[in-house]
Amino acid sequence: MTSIFEGTLIRLRAREPEDAPLLYQWFNDPEVTEHLAMRYPLSMKSEREFVESVSSPGYAHAGFAVETLAESRLIGGVDLINIRPECRCASLGIAIGDKSFWDGGYGTDTMRTACHFGFAMMNLHRIELEVYANNERARHVYEKVGFVLEGCRRQALYKYGRYQDVLVMSLLEGELRLDHRP
Amino acid sequence: MIPTRSSMEGRLVRLRAREPQDEAAFHVWFNDYAVTEFLAIRYPVSHLAERSMLDSEPALRHERAMFSVETLGDGVLIGNCELRVPGAENRCGNVGIAIGHTGYRDRGYGTDTMRTLSRFGFTMMNLHRIELTVDATNARARHVYRTVGFVEEGLLRDHRFISGAYRDTVVMSILRNEFQEDPL
Question: Per residue in A108-121, pLDDT tens?
Answer without folding.
Answer: 999 999 999 999 99
